[in-house]
User: Which sequence fits this backbone?
């Protein structure tokens, strides 16, 4: 039997005090934006089970890099089913996501640079040529790459202090490919290249220097693409560049402030589902007790969740609980909706709503409908799709300086997409900047100056929509009827537009927030 959905409970005395906590804000009350999401990766995340005890950090355009360094942003990338084939990357500033920085910092690229240089030396050419050819021939039965266990560490050094698991192995290798022994280090290096890079390079069976050099260059580019397009790398880059997108377009000051809270969707879900009494959740203590119920503390105004929610029963339950807490806080929670909610797996692949099919399970559909009918969802806003955060790297768009690199072939998933909650939050903040607490959601609906990718395909000029899809009015109506806010591209321009601010509530209603009390005062 399917477990009945529950959106949690709040004590009647807590609910009865709601009106007092939602008085109209004073004119000098700041607009406080809290962005929550996974901003560190599982390696460095604060593991405190109580969300309310985690550090909430103020961020602006001037201190973004310092906040990144303080949080210790780390991403572990696995390139195949072998859990030991892992690359660990650390980021201290936004530029660390750039290919030039990766090319310069990572030992794996240093080894490829050494290999390329060895082709220019007559004394090392033959052995280097044999090594390069082995990349497409290496035996995969030699076992996975593993971190050496016999390598001495300095006092206090953690097992993961080096740049990556692979870096530890390569550090022990001979610095010159010509002097590299036939030992395990070299075998593991070749095995790695075979498994990870080999399928992406052209096999060369002769000793022509130019072709061998091209093979090394393609190995560099292929490996860089694999890193940039890895799901976990993209998620972290998109999270931080979305924050930069927001703070770089706002004039933050004592009246408008932006904060970050590092918490994964998994941890957030566990927190709000941990008890039927929502007052026991860390999210409630953070958003309500530490703001509204603390003398002298300013309340939160907007909660932007850098997540994507599906139409599953679990996600519906989580959203319902968040909505109830958001209502108590007087601050709407805005996040992304997966297109599956409207029966579409990819808006880029099928932008025509006639091609959408409702495949949602019956129990999930019932949960979603129940969610939309609770009054608290007036404080819940979901939007789709995302928006483009940067151009692909390449000679005609954003060239790398340290090596020739063309990132992609206009594949939708390989672009870097930002969460639509950031665009919605920017529009609300711009309205506040213009009108203060007399603001109304919808005063600003359009954002200009986004990256615009213009490219050639089949001899013709094409433009990638800034939201990845050109949605018709009919498609937008279907999305709106589902309670979702559509974010649309303005055709052949660098602009996007939110069709309408609305909540998830059914029947349709405005997105509620502290501005409602100001308007009614």
Assistant:
């Amino acid at each position: 039997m399917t477990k009945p959905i529950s959106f949690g409970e709040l004590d009647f005395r807590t609910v009865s005090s709601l009106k007092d906590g939602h008085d109209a804000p004073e004119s000098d009350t700041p607009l406080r934006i809290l962005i929550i999401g996974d901003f560190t990766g599982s390696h460095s995340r604060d593991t405190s089970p109580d969300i309310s005890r985690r550090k909430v950090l103020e961020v602006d355009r001037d201190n973004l890099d310092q906040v990144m360094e303080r949080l210790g942003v780390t991403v572990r990338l696995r390139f195949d089913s072998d859990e030991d084939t892992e690359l660990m990357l650390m980021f201290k500033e936004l530029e660390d996501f750039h290919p030039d920085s990766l090319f310069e910092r990572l030992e794996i690229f240093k080894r490829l640079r050494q290999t390329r240089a060895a082709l220019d030396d007559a004394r090392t050419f033959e052995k280097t040529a044999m090594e390069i050819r082995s990349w497409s021939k290496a035996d995969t039965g030699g076992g996975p790459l593993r971190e050496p266990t016999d390598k001495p560490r300095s006092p206090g050094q953690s097992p993961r202090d080096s740049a990556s698991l692979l870096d530890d192995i390569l550090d022990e290798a001979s610095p010159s490919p010509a002097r590299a022994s036939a030992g395990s280090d070299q075998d593991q290096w070749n095995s790695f290249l075979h498994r990870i890079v080999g399928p992406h390079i052209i096999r060369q069976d002769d000793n022509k220097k130019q072709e061998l050099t091209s093979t090394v260059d393609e190995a560099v580019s292929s490996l860089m693409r694999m890193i940039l397009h890895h799901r976990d790398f993209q998620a972290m880059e998109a999270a931080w560049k979305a924050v930069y997108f927001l703070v770089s377009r706002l004039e933050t000051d004592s009246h408008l402030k932006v904060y970050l809270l590092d918490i994964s969707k998994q941890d957030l879900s566990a927190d709000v589902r941990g008890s039927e009494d929502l007052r026991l959740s860390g999210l409630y203590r953070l958003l309500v007790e530490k703001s509204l119920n603390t003398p002298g503390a300013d309340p939160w105004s907007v909660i932007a969740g850098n997540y994507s929610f599906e139409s599953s029963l679990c996600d519906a339950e989580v959203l319902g609980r968040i909505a109830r807490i958001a209502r108590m806080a007087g601050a709407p929670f805005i996040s992304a909706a997966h297109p599956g909610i409207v029966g579409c797996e990819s808006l880029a692949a099928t932008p025509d709503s006639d091609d959408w099919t409702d495949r949602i399970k019956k129990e999930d559909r019932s949960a979603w409908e129940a969610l939309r009918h609770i009054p608290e969802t007036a404080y819940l806003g979901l939007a789709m799709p995302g928006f483009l955060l940067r151009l692909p790297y390449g000679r005609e768009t954003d060239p790398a300086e340290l090596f020739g690199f063309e990132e992609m072939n206009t594949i939708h998933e390989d672009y870097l997409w930002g969460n639509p909650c950031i665009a919605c939050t920017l529009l609300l903040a711009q309205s506040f900047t213009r009108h203060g607490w007399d603001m109304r959601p919808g005063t600003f609906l359009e954002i200009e100056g986004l990256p615009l990718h213009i490219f050639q395909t089949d001899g013709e000029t094409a433009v990638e929509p800034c939201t990845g899809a050109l949605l018709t009015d009919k498609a937008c109506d279907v999305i709106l009827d589902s309670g979702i806010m559509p974010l649309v591209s303005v055709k052949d321009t660098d602009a996007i537009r939110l069709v309408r601010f609305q909540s998830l509530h059914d029947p349709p209603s405005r997105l509620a927030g502290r501005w409602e009390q100001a308007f009614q005062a």
